Automatic annotation (TrEMBL):
It comes from the Bacteria. Its cofactor is Co(2+); Mn(2+). Keywords: Hydrolase, Metal-binding. This is 5'-deoxynucleotidase. One of its GO terms (cellular component) is cytoplasm.
């Protein structure tokens, strides 16, 4: 049980760590989410995706996808994230940010029993490297949560649309399994038909 309580206590910081990388997308400080909210919503999206993918036959390991989502941004716990547009414009800065995240992640892992830390690190690494279909689905959920958030906040600009078209939807091509890839494309088609560039929509559906 080495460090479990300390690790959980440390993870509580996710409530306080603001995702300030949204600022360049036009989101104000008052509108930003925190790391805990992001992790929760990414996990919900990923779970629903897995349920949809596996609705007739099990094609993807839901347990692994969910665990990847729960740990994917732990390296941001002590300093937040870097804006995606900034990272694309200056990739050398992104390398420094990744090194910072790796250091933060290592600090967290040092609190855990080595065997548990190894399991968490393996999931974290797979997700960051898009090493499996499970990792790609987790990454799709991660980036789509960002896009749903921007829609929720009514953010409309070329940067948002370009990020979706050039960096989110193309992730489907990294999926190896044909059935998983097909279901992921169906998800994106549904998003584009019902959510994309429509702003905040839940109240419309409730009142229909």
């Amino acid at each position: 049980m080495k460090g479990i309580s300390k690790f959980i206590s440390m993870i509580e910081l996710a409530r306080e760590q603001v995702q300030y990388g949204y600022f360049l997308a036009g989101v104000t400080r008052q509108e930003t989410s925190n790391l805990a909210e992001h992790h929760y919503l990414v996990t919900i999206i990923a779970w629903m995706l897995c349920e949809y993918i596996n609705r007739e036959e099990k094609f993807i390991n839901t347990d692994e996808v969910i665990k990847m989502c729960l740990v994917h941004d732990l390296g941001e716990l002590f300093g937040g994230d870097m804006s995606a547009p900034l990272a694309r414009k200056w990739p050398d800065l992104k390398q420094h940010a990744l090194a910072f995240e790796q250091g933060n992640f290592n600090i967290l892992m040092s609190l855990l029993d080595p065997a548990i830390a190894c399991t968490v690190k393996d999931l974290w690494t797979k997700e960051s490297e898009h090493a499996t279909d499970e990792a790609v689905v987790a990454k799709i959920a991660d980036l789509m949560e960002t896009h749903f958030f921007l829609e929720h906040r009514g953010i409309q600009n070329e940067q948002k649309d370009g990020f979706y078209l050039n960096h989110i939807r193309p992730l489907v091509e990294k999926i190896i399994h044909e059935q998983i890839r097909a279901r992921a494309n169906e998800f994106f088609d549904d998003f584009e038909a019902n959510i994309k560039n429509k702003g905040f929509t839940p109240s419309q559906w409730i009142m229909e």
